[in-house]
Amino acid sequence: MLREKIVFGPIFSRRLGSSLGINLLPENGKICNFDCIYCECGWNRDGREDSRLPLPAELETALRSKLQDCRDNGVRIDSITFSGDGEPTLNPHFPEMIDITLHLRDEFFPQSAVSVLSNATMIRRPEVRAALMRVDNPILKLDGGIDRIVSLVNQPSGKYSVADTFEALKEFKGEFVLQTMFLKGPGFSSLEEENVVAWRAMVLELRPREVMVYTIDRQTPAEGLEKCTAEEMEAVTRPLAEAGIKIQIKG
User: Fold this and answer.
1) What is the pTM of this model?
2) What single string gives the DSSP state of each residue in the chain?
């Protein structure tokens, strides 16, 4: 289980470079409306000992101190990244947290990007969507093209459908980064033709600024999971690249 303070790192990210992390979720717990079988933070049930969410003033104090320290010591920051132990947009102060971060980024590291890793479940809320549209890299998850694969891989709580998420993603008019995990597990594979065909069709219509596809890289809470190879993911995304969509593959 990852247990991060409100500001942590910077750490090296295979997708974002030198990344200073922001965790808007409990320091000693996990809050997420997905329970992904590959989540490096572990199962939701194992992260319930702490449910306190940080407040905007706490972020401002911690982030200002960390950015000042990094600047004074010549530490490079490529991205200030909202990630942490669960889904950052579940923090009710998320829009204000974005405002604070953008202001401090401009003050200390104006060349750095602000990125948000989100499962896209909250983007139908106008205030969350507007906040995500203000950052440099809204990185929004869609781990499958059909509900059966998403149900197996992400195990969403409450009502969730790929079709609803697809409609909400249209509101970004392509100004976002799409992130998709490809993997294999007992009785399923992200490479199943029905899933791949549906996923590609949605990507072609959404035309995101970039598509990040990746596979498992660390220990997973579920057993029996297997990586997809870079070659397999390249084959899946080749029609998208041929259509002019930027593809980043992390095998």
Assistant:
1) 0.92
2) -----SEEEEEEETTTEEEEEE--S-TT--B-S---TT-TT--GGGS-S--PPPPHHHHHHHHHHHHHHHHHTT---SEEEE-SSB-GGGSTTHHHHHHHHHHHHHHH-TTSEEEEEE-STTTTSHHHHHHHHHSSEEEEE---SSHHHHHHHH--SSS--HHHHHHHHGGGTT-SEEEEE-EEETTEETT-HHHHHHHHHHHHHH--SEEEEE---S--SSSS-EEPPHHHHHHHHHHHHHTT--EEEE-
